[in-house]
């Protein structure tokens, strides 16, 4: 069988296109690792290196992107009115994978790698979207002022719906964060929780007699309390340290009951008494008691708003939310007023004023979904698509970190998701021969797009490899320390770092 270089490198070759498509589908459709692709194809007599697999897989994504662009532009009139969800995902300071998703059918219409989610970059993205598809009927976005400004610039007058989950999270941040942070600090002060946890590890994990079983109970109880803060994220939808305090209250109360039972039995288990006394002392701290009391009242009010907005806990994982109606809007506004009065009576009116300000600020963007038929009021399904792309990377690479791969081909992965879209498969791909479509594509454009991937979304930098940077830096300092004419040497140094020399007098 001919080698990859001999028979498969040129994508214009029939076998090359077939193998390229097979490699791409194995990599990105089935999440095969490169070595798995190599082994699978070897079984059919096709010999490829892992480097060849990487190149062919990316070529497949590029060709799929070109096919989608052509097909989606032709299908666009059948998608109207388009409700457009926009969102970006990024790791640290890497390229932003920015995505425009049609909410009705779940199609990704455009995706690009942006240097940053800035007004200039997002505006350019939306302008390029507009040039191909025209203005949407409405845009669904998060609370970003950048996205708001970019949409206003490119699609003036187009309604903008703020994602209700993001809005509720922002409300929770403003309302709950001060007391939650105070509670966390109060619980952690003096390392009492850490000392309790360390002590618990000296207690038994099994036993037969009643005294040993109660000591085991203490250990389990303290471990249960500590587990509440094992994953402290998810604020404000999850309040880990509030859970710590409430579990501590529960354990302290059960410890008191155990002690009463032991007195009646004539049994002494010092560990039960110690856990009770320590937890009661922790909960009696003013730094714990006061913020916990306020937090309970504030969380109850926040949960009422969540209920009125139909964002209860069991809805968080759902892609779409029930449509909003004018009656729903009236219910939310009445709930805000009612909870405000109740908190004011408890002396917490100042905290609730932050919530009221946020409702006033976002009023033009909160209730659009009630007036535009079919308009989604969330970007949750778009964010789920981002997560799905990252999960695929983990499967293909075996690595936890997804940033490098998302930064390199995140936009291509976003477009690839259309392969699994039922509507697109039925309306845009039925009867389509991928090989024939790929064969009609301009191979020169394919190669150009592959080359462009290297710098897509990357910040401009001096083109010196990191391993050579120190040497180049030292060269210039040493050169400038010398006496006499140095123009020629400066020019040579400038060429080595690919920077034009603007003045020989430097």
Write the layout of secondary structure elements.
Layout: H1 4-8, H2 14-29, H3 34-42, H4 50-79, E1 83-89, E2 96-102, E3 107-114, H5 119-133, E4 138-141, H6 145-154, E5 160-162, H7 164-188, H8 192-200, H9 210-227, H10 240-265, H11 270-284, H12 286-308, H13 326-345, H14 349-366, H15 380-397, H16 403-416, H17 422-428, H18 434-440, H19 443-452, H20 466-481, H21 487-496
Parallel strand pairs: 1-4, 4-5
Antiparallel strand pairs: 1-2, 2-3
Helix pairs in contact: 2-4, 2-18, 3-4, 4-16, 4-19, 5-6, 7-12, 7-14, 8-9, 9-10, 10-11, 12-13, 13-14, 15-16, 20-21
Number of domains: 3
| Order of secondary-structure elements | HHHHEEEHEHEHHHHHHHHHHHHHHH
Number of helices: 21
Radius of gyration: 30 Å
Which percent range describes the beta-strand content? Answer: 5-15%
How would you describe what is shown here?
The protein is mainly α and 506 residues long. It has 3 domains: 65-163 and 379-455, 2-Layer Sandwich (Nucleotidyltransferase, domain 5), CATH 3.30.420; 170-359, no CATH class; 466-496, no CATH class. It is built from 21 helices and 5 strands. It has helices at residues 4-8, 14-29, 34-42, 50-79, 119-133, 145-154, 164-188, 192-200, 210-227, 240-265, 270-284, 286-308, 326-345, 349-366, 380-397, 403-416, 422-428, 434-440, 443-452, 466-481, 487-496, and strands at 83-89, 96-102, 107-114, 138-141, 160-162. It has a 5-stranded mixed sheet with strand order 3-2-1-4-5, with helices on both faces. Helix 6 (145-154) links the parallel strand 4 (138-141) and strand 5. Helix 5 (119-133) crosses helix 6 (145-154). The protein is globular, with a radius of gyration of 30 Å.
């Amino acid at each position: 069988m001919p080698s990859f270089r001999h028979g498969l490198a040129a994508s214009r070759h029939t076998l090359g296109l077939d193998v390229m498509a097979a490699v791409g589908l194995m990599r990105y459709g089935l999440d095969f690792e490169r070595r798995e692709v190599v082994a699978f194809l070897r079984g059919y007599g096709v010999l490829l290196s892992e480097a060849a697999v990487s190149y062919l897989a990316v070529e497949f994504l590029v060709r799929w992107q070109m096919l989608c662009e052509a097909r989606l532009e032709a299908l666009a009139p059948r998608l109207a009115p388009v409700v457009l969800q926009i969102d970006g995902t990024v790791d640290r300071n890497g390229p932003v994978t920015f995505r425009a998703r049609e909410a009705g059918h779940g199609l990704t219409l455009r995706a690009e790698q942006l240097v940053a989610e800035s007004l200039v970059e997002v505006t350019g993205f939306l302008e390029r979207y507009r040039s191909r598809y025209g203005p949407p009927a409405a845009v669904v976005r998060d609370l970003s002022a950048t996205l708001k400004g970019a949409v206003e610039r490119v699609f003036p007058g187009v309604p903008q719906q703020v994602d209700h989950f993001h809005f509720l999270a922002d409300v929770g941040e403003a309302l709950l964060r001060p007391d939650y942070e105070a509670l966390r600090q109060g619980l952690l002060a003096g390392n009492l929780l850490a000392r309790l946890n360390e002590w618990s590890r000296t207690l038994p994990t099994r036993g037969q007699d009643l005294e040993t079983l109660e000591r085991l109970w203490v250990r389990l109880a303290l471990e249960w309390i500590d587990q509440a803060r094992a994953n402290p994220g998810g604020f404000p939808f999850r309040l880990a340290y509030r859970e710590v305090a409430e579990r501590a209250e529960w354990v302290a109360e059960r410890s008191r009951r155990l002690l009463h039972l032991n007195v009646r039995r004539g049994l002494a288990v010092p560990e039960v008494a110690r856990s009770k006394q320590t937890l009661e002392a922790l909960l009696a701290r003013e730094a714990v008691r006061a913020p916990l009391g306020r937090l309970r009242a504030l969380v109850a009010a926040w949960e009422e708003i969540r209920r009125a907005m139909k964002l209860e806990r069991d809805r968080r994982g759902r892609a779409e939310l029930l449509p909003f109606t004018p009656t729903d809007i009236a219910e939310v506004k009445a709930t805000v007023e009612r909870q405000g009065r109740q908190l004011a009576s408890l002396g917490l009116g100042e905290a609730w004023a932050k919530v009221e300000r946020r409702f006033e600020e976002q009023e033009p963007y909160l209730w659009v979904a009630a007036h535009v038929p079919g308009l989604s009021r969330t970007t949750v399904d778009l964010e789920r698509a981002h997560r799905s792309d990252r999960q695929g990377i983990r499967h293909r690479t075996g690595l936890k970190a997804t940033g490098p791969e998302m930064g390199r081909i995140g936009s291509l992965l976003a477009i690839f998701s259309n392969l699994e879209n039922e509507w697109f498969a039925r309306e845009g791909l039925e009867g389509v021969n991928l090989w024939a479509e790929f064969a009609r594509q301009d191979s020169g454009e394919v190669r150009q797009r592959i080359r462009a991937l290297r710098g897509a979304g990357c910040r401009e930098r001096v083109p010196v490899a990191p391993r050579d940077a120190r040497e180049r830096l030292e060269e210039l300092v040493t050169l400038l320390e010398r006496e006499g004419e140095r123009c020629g040497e400066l020019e040579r140094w400038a060429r080595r770092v690919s920077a034009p020399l603007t003045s020989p007098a430097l």
